[in-house]
Amino acid sequence: MLVVMQTGAPKEQAKAVCDRIEELGFEAHPIYGAFKTVIGITGDTRAVDVGALESLTGVAEVIIVGKPYKLVSREFKTEDTVIRIPAPAGEVSIGGNAVAMIAGPCAVETREQIFAIAEPLAKAGVKLFRGGAFKPRTSPYSFQGLGEAGLQILKEVRERFGMAIVTEAMDQESLDLVEQYADVIQIGARNMQNYSLLKRVGHAHKPVMLKRGLSATLDEFLMAAEYIAASGNPNIMLCERGVRTFADHSRNTLDLTVVPAVKVRSHLPILVDPSHGTGKRHKVLPLSRAAVAVGADGLMIEVHHSPDHALSDGVQSILPDEYRQLVEEVRQIAAVLHRTIN
Ligand code: PEP
Ligand code: MN
């Protein structure tokens, strides 16, 4: 449920409405716009007396949101959310005019491997570096990541090249660590419906990249984001990474139709991961072009200096040189849409 304040209603009136909402036992989430304030109400709002709220001073209308998510909905916030990430080399925005590029290997394997990838990527202008220290692998016998030692290596990359770090937390314990090192906390596809983890990351003071579950509908995806927002963290970026379908020519089916669908329903930025979305190196460039064309707010690309020797996801990783070429192509596509590449 949303309470829309009258245009120009003073902040004190909105504050009084928030206090009343809280007195009634619900949570109030005000968004103060330049001209209008909108207050989201969470909790079991079925018992709310709409008429009583509408009669409060300064209230223009009360909207009963048809969708099960509120805080992440476009109705709650009309303007696009822009997430500002304080990288050592300067702030990076996700969700604004610039298409954000996140690149790096699937996993942190060794210090040498990470530096062999980070150096050319930094030279190619990458500001957001990815790499997993905690890896969710299908087989328990596959490389599981270096854990905190991997986070230490990422910290060195951050210091040396000034890039912000995007890395995954798999559970509450790894989140305690990841939160200390990461600039963006990644919640992977397999954990999209791990509600206790979503609540916990909702209390983190870092932006979150939430990847779409392996077979999640858009409503389920946005409800997962709602968990994070409802726990207090509004800095959420969504990431489409392909879903499971009957198609077997591709690791996953990259659902680019979700990008414009998210834009209608939500104010959150939506990124696309064509690496996991296709699982094949040769498909990364064409699907990157398509993702930017369809309006994605960013791309996440797996890059490895020696893909054939990668400990995970080598078959979908591209070389640093290929990455540079990819950026040049998507830059031209972004320009058609009056966007730049970050
Ligand atoms: C990853 O980004 O390395 C990853 C494991 O992705 P996903 O959760 O989408 O499978
Ligand atoms: Mn991977």
CATH superfamily of the largest domain: Aldolase class I
CATH architecture of the largest domain: Alpha-Beta Barrel
User: Could you please say which CATH topology of the largest domain applies here?
Assistant: TIM Barrel
The CATH class of the largest domain, by name, is Alpha Beta
| Radius of gyration based on Cα positions | 21 Å
The succession of helices and strands, N to C, reads EHEEHEEEEHEHEHEHEHEHEHHEHE
Number of domains: 2
Terminal residue distance: 36 Å
Account of the protein in words:
There is one protein chain. With 342 residues, this protein is an alpha/beta fold. It has two domains: 2-63, Phospho-2-dehydro-3-deoxyheptonate aldolase, domain 1 (Alpha-Beta Plaits), CATH 3.30.70.1140; 83-341, Alpha-Beta Barrel (TIM Barrel), CATH 3.20.20. 35% of the residues lie in helices and 20% in strands. Strands 7-8-9-10-11-12-13-14 form an eight-stranded parallel β-barrel, surrounded by seven helices. Strand 12, helix 8 and strand 13 form a beta-alpha-beta unit. Helix 3 runs parallel beside helix 4 (148-161), helix 4 runs parallel beside helix 5 (172-181) and helix 10 runs parallel beside helix 11 (320-336). The longest helix is centred in the C-terminal third of the chain and has 17 residues, at 320-336. The radius of gyration is 21 Å and the shape is elongated. The mean pLDDT is 96. The site of manganese (II) ion has 5 residues, from loops. Residues 106, 276, 302, 312-313 line the site of manganese (II) ion.
List the helices and strands and how they pair.
Blueprint: E1 2-5, H1 11-23, E2 27-32, E3 37-42, H2 50-54, E4 59-63, E5 83-87, E6 90-94, E7 98-104, H3 111-123, E8 128-130, H4 148-161, E9 164-168, H5 172-181, E10 184-187, H6 195-201, E11 208-211, H7 218-230, E12 236-240, H8 258-265, E13 270-272, H9 274-278, H10 281-293, E14 298-302, H11 320-336, E15 340-341
Helix pairs in contact: 3-4, 4-5, 6-7, 10-11
Phosphoenolpyruvate binds at residues 106, 132, 136, 188-190, 211, 241, 276.
